[in-house]
């Protein structure tokens, strides 16, 4: 029984602003996943009917999700689409690895697509919005590392000796927006502001 900031609630669903450090898998009837150290909008069903109804939309890619991330360095293009195959890394079971279609090991790997757009540039970092078209595990983290710009503070996907803003204790990744159809047919949008720890990091690097 943890205390969460509630974004929205009705008889079927609960939308919370999940803090970093909370494992979403520990929350009963969560509709989708958020990595433990990713904060932001998390959808929880209050009953099995709602769970099934909402999960179906995720499976059919009808849900729009947006994340805010701070990445190392500067991107060549102000916006773009990353389209690869993703699968578990054979060298590190905790990680996802990007495969190209021509890779002999690509068989059975799953398609992953992320759209990104630059929001703001800092001296050593760039703030982006990332929209995953697919919902693969660690998708945004693996894709940004693949571009050579890992998410700031990401201990799993970050490069050796990668600079990290002082005081950042987790990956700078926040689920800021989610759009989904509710059981009554109404399409709802949910938003969560950047959490305080991430706001403090931004004010330090500006």
Question: What do you see in this structure?
Answer:
It is a single chain. It contains 3 helices and 10 strands. The protein has helices spanning 48-59, 139-146, 196-205, and strands at residues 5-9, 13-18, 39-45, 64-72, 79-88, 96-99, 110-121, 125-132, 173-181, 187-191. Strands 1, 2, 3, 4, 5, 6, 7, 8, 9 and 10 form a 10-stranded mixed β-sheet that branches.
SSE order and pairing:
Elements: E1 5-9, E2 13-18, E3 39-45, H1 48-59, E4 64-72, E5 79-88, E6 96-99, E7 110-121, E8 125-132, H2 139-146, E9 173-181, E10 187-191, H3 196-205
Parallel strand pairs: 3-9
Antiparallel strand pairs: 1-2, 2-3, 4-8, 4-9, 5-6, 5-7, 7-8, 9-10
Summarize the structure.
The chain has 206 residues and is mainly β. The protein has helices at residues 48-59, 139-146, 196-205; strands at residues 5-9, 13-18, 39-45, 64-72, 79-88, 96-99, 110-121, 125-132, 173-181, 187-191. The chain is 15% helix and 36% strand.
Name the beta content range. 35-45%
Q: Using DSSP, what is the number of strands?
A: 10
Largest sheet: 10 strands, mixed
User: CA-to-CA gap between the ends?
Assistant: 37 Å
Give the tags.
3 helices, mainly beta, 206 residues
